[in-house]
Amino acid sequence: MTEDVSIRVEGGVGRITLTRPSALHALNTPMCAAILTALQGWSGDDAVNLVLIDHQEGTRGFCAGGDIRMLAESGAGDASEARAFFATEYRMNVALDEFPKPVLAIMDGVTMGGGVGLSVHGSHRVATERTLFAMPETGIGLFPDVGGGWFLPRLAGELGTWLALTGDRLKGQDVAAAGVATHFLPSELVPNLMKQIASADFSVGAAEMLNEILRTLTHSIPAGGFEANRAVIDTCFAFDTAEEIVAALEADGGDWALSQVKSLRSKSPETVKVALRQLREGRQLTSFRDNMQMEYRIGWRKVQSHDFQEGVRAVIIDKDNAPSWDPATIEGVPDEMVDKYFAPLGEDELTF
What we know:
Blueprint (H helix, E strand, L loop, with lengths): L4 E6 L2 E6 L10 H15 L6 E6 L12 H8 L4 H18 L5 E5 L2 E3 L1 H6 L4 E4 L4 E3 L13 H4 L7 H8 L3 E2 L1 H5 L5 E2 L5 H10 L6 H12 L12 H7 L5 H11 L2 H12 L2 H16 L3 H15 L3 H12 L17 H8 L10
Parallel strand pairs: 2-3, 3-4, 4-6, 5-7, 6-9
Antiparallel strand pairs: 1-2, 7-8
């Protein structure tokens, strides 16, 4: 199907291994299609008791995201290739969320964007000291998709809002402390985990067996490093408009709060507002499928937006890190500019 992902069944375990190290295993459409097909087949296959997602041994990163350059190039034209990618990737996200058996993701290394969507919707998620989590999309004018509207507002307090709007990073144990991962395991013990999984019989009580293996290997999770700023996060990022969030941070006046203002001011103003509404609406939804349909509406339009094209130019192509956002400020983004991203697509809606 594609040389960028290895898919096989070993001893009752469906194995999905990312094998695209030159791009830090970033997802493309054939990879998502292959994974989706495997999940659909394994869902009702009694010979598969557990799914394990990891990346090629000895290579860097778990999954750095999606093929941003392709999205931008497609968005500069008719956007058909970008929209086809979103449709395939989002269906894969839904298949992971609805998979009826345990799904274990080994988030060892960079786990951003699409890599988060490939891992966070599974039942068991292992972070290591090398895990680097982020949803950095506001910095390139995209948006925190792949289910970000669903899982981010369901993190404790306003952690998800902070992470979505600023694109801030979590490392190692903090990924588990925030609830993005369910377990923490030093990377040196990952081979031991793999051996135990390979020798275990998951034919009866797969979830219980996996829980027991992880219980014996994983370490306790200490309080996250972000807890020092938790009160500011939960208070200042609780507002429903970006203007109020910025004002609250400025009123706090502390060094950390003001650093968040600086970060927010550097992001695409339009995208900050789109992402905030995405999370607020996603928090109210009761269906993951409805969330992904909402995100497809946003993505359908966002790839052709000025800020996404400009963000990719500044960060990925020219690398001058000096995007010219339009509008240039959060205060300059009218509500109707945000509204258009959430409007129904009619016959172009994502279906499952």
